[in-house]
TrEMBL record:
One of its GO terms (molecular function) is glycosyltransferase activity. InterPro entries: HGPRT (IPR050408), PRTase-like (IPR029057), PRTase_dom (IPR000836). This is Phosphoribosyltransferase family protein. Keywords: Glycosyltransferase, Transferase. Gene3D superfamilies: 3.40.50.2020.
């Protein structure tokens, strides 16, 4: 399988460090980081470590969302696994791999606000140039409108573990 490398492992690390420094003044140790599974785990792990390196030890939890029923995108968002800890009265930071249409990010934000979060911030590693339901507060990289893989982005569940972001098209 061949792909174009669009963002190297070194570039990803530098962008995440810059994001952490940019968002740090707005966060506190009481902030709860929420990883959107499955793709967001690589970004969330690296971002929370970058925040820890600058002195912020935010909490961590995850949500598993899906918009796929029979293998095709249905447009209906399903909450497959909810948070393990309450967010009532807390600031939360949603972390995800890519912002495409924004359906999952919007669903997660609305769900967390209904659960009592006082503020919901959003951070994504990549943002594609498409019409969407929501914009992210923090973006690591403005991605091209291509089929991306690696660093959490998959092709049928494969290639998420590549240490860079590539394009398959």
């Amino acid at each position: 399988m061949t792909y174009d490398i669009l963002l190297s492992e070194t570039d990803i690390a530098a962008r995440i460090e810059a994001m952490a420094k940019d968002m740090a003044p707005r966060l506190s140790d009481d902030t709860i980081g929420i990883c959107l599974l499955s793709g967001g785990i690589w970004f969330a792990a690296d971002l929370t470590r970058a925040l820890a390196r600058i002195g912020l030890g935010i909490g961590f939890d995850s949500m598993w969302l899906s918009s796929y029923g029979d293998g095709r995108e249905s447009g209906e968002m399903i909450l497959r696994a909810d948070l393990q800890r309450p967010v009532q009265g807390k600031q939360v930071l949603i972390m995800d791999d890519v912002l495409d249409t924004g359906a999952s990010l919007k669903f997660a934000r609305d769900h967390l606000l209904r659960a009592g979060a006082t503020e919901v911030l959003t951070a994504v590693m990549a943002s594609k140039p498409v019409a969407r339901h929501i914009e992210a507060d923090y973006v690591g990289w403005e991605a091209p409108k291509r089929y991306l893989v690696g660093y959490g982005l998959d092709d049928g569940g494969r290639l998420r573990g590549l240490p860079f972001i590539g394009a398959l098209d």
